[in-house]
Give the backbone structure.
Amino acid sequence: MEQANQSLVSEFIFDGLCNSSEAQTFLLLPFSIVYLMTFVGNLLVVLIIILDPHLHSPMYFLLANLSFVDFCISSVTTPKLITDFLRDNKTITFEGCMTQIVGVHLFAGGEMVLLVTMAYDRYVAICKPLHYSSIMDRQKCIWLVLITWIIGLVHSTSQLAMVLELPFCGPRRVDSFFCDIPLVIKLACMDTHKIEMMINADSGVLATTCFIILLVSYTYILVTVRLRSKDGASKALSTCTSHITVVVLFFGPCIFIYLWPLSITWVDKFLAVFYTVITPLLNPAIYTLRNKEIKNAIKRLINKHLDSRDKS
């Protein structure tokens, strides 16, 4: 922490997605629309699950938490990206940069563990259906969600602790649109090779471990589904397909960024946009468009609202 206190850098400068002012003006509207849809979509999923008693089950409790986490991930980076499209000087304070680092790794780390929890829920529901209600009770669901937040907090805190140990006294341009750790630590006034390895190992191990667990879990689930009756298997397969799609979309870019040895700027920026801006929008779309219970809940809420209006 003494080295952090000696830092002379009070702010960092983002290079953003591109250098062209025309391109930035063009990107302003689509990114604003995507964020608005992400904001509304994820909060709508949370509200529907809270308001509809038919959705008060472990699977939808976890889905509501996933939507909330996706909303948070997007809100850490996207509003700043959108406002920076209107600025020539894209700066962020040192404290703001550290806050972004904590936020991204808190919510991303939490989502990784939450997706594992959702896979466990599907495993119990499909492979041990007779014991589902006793295994996945309300108290256990709450504890599982608390564990995801605790792991996310420990992960983000460990990342921040390593960054705060670095002295920042010279370069301050970050070739991205948010404070991504691999780029920020390169600006430190010291040899950061060992710290880079530690930080990448921290994120890489968490992402890879969760991804392997998910692959094994869903492989086992799909094998089990294949042996079941067609009616039950069809519904289970549809749910698992949605989960697997979300897993691939989220983990693919994260693992590539932290474990791929070569760094290509435009590829890194594309992947960063994908998992901080696009994936949080796709998750509610994937679940709501493929989920009959969610669509039925939306219809019930609309009909209830219309009935109340007619009576008044």
